[in-house]
Amino acid sequence: MSVHIIGAGLSGLACAVRLTNRMIPVTIYEATEHAGGRCRSFFDNVLKRNIDNGNHLVLSGNRQAMAYMQAIGSLQSMSPPLQAAFPFLDLKNGEQWLVKASWKLRIPNCSILDLLSAFKLAWAPKDLTVAEALNTSRPIFRKLWEPLCISILNTAPEEAAASLLWTVFKESFGRGAQACKPCIAQQGLSKSLVDPALTLLRQNGSNVRFKERLKSINFKDGRAVTLIFGHNQISLKPNDTVIIALPILATGALLPGLSCPNQHRSIVNAHFVLPRTITDLNFIGLVGGVSQWLFVREDIASVTVSAADQLAKKTNEEIAKTIWPEVLLALKLDNEPLPVYRIIKEKFATFAQTPEQLLLRPNAQTEWPNILLAGDWTDTGLPATIEGAVTSGHNAADAVR
Ligand SMILES: Cc1cc2nc3c(=O)[nH]c(=O)nc-3n(C[C@H](O)[C@H](O)[C@H](O)COP(=O)(O)OP(=O)(O)OC[C@H]3O[C@@H](n4cnc5c(N)ncnc54)[C@H](O)[C@@H]3O)c2cc1C
Q: N or C: where does the chain have the smaller number of CB atoms within 10 Å of the terminal CB?
């Protein structure tokens, strides 16, 4: 029996790692020259630094992501801080606060009752949006619920599914401070989530083939029979399984007629070289401006803006000129001129996580008995995040007979 995994993003890698740990060797076929997909590091020729395609944050309560890192031996590289604390700054008025996973709320003008209002998400019907479930006129909405909704679901609260946000709250805040610690890949995403997986897979006899784009699949008698790549094709044996761990658009092109979400939301990341190394700040949430999260690694400041379809339409220069003054404010730096920057627009960052789009998510099994699906957009019950991608890979691996 052979298992062919198409796509070396986190879902494909997590699937491969789980199968090789069960002594089932796999072959991964990846279209590009690198693994990691939407979650990876690279050397940027303009900044002359290693950067991540976008800031990624994982919570210590993300069980499947932690199990994956445990399996590939990289858990230490993403070790959480002692405290479950999220600093915030209001760019409009300079107000600062620290959100801690405790009942002692320290958000200005917010009470314990405001915090308890999160439970409205738990009972929200499947078709309710976050803005419909929560009271948008309370200060806590702008200071906490809105930034969390946008960063977790990459979808504005006015259209994001309330029930999906609750799954994250339940698994993190619902399990106490230990599950809410923010974990960041200090050495970059690839060192924590990608490279150790490739090493492990090769050591265990699995094969990772780059520059192998799956172009089409031939079917006969209700089964996939041939995988067609650019230069070669693979005839499937009766016991072979194909796991398609690709983004939505690529999967839809290979499997016409498959039900899948059809709307996406963008994420824009802006990376700047700072005049000096900053050591006293890892990340901070920003409200009241365009920037939403600022991450700092040595002398690189990286700003994330999610649900950023409008921003993504602007030129890179316009985006940099908008965001740089907010970086200066957040880092309390003097009026430095715009430095070298890199803008990365991920137009198809995730699917739009609205109640309607959630209904279109397929699960791992397909109508073809020898094809399984993985990917953050499949029906894991979780948002399209690292935790969702890894869970989808684990689900597909568990479905291999
Ligand atoms: C900017 C940004 C910021 C994010 N921030 C966070 C965050 O803070 N926390 C979090 O948990 N999640 C975050 N996410 C989401 C997270 O990155 C994704 O959920 C996850 O990486 C998706 O993994 P995947 O394997 O499902 O898909 P992908 O990463 O898209 O992997 C699919 C792979 O398939 C390959 N491929 C495509 N077509 C073919 C083909 N025909 N043949 C062969 N290979 C092909 C691609 O090259 C790619 O390597 C963020 C995403 C983005 C874009």
A: C
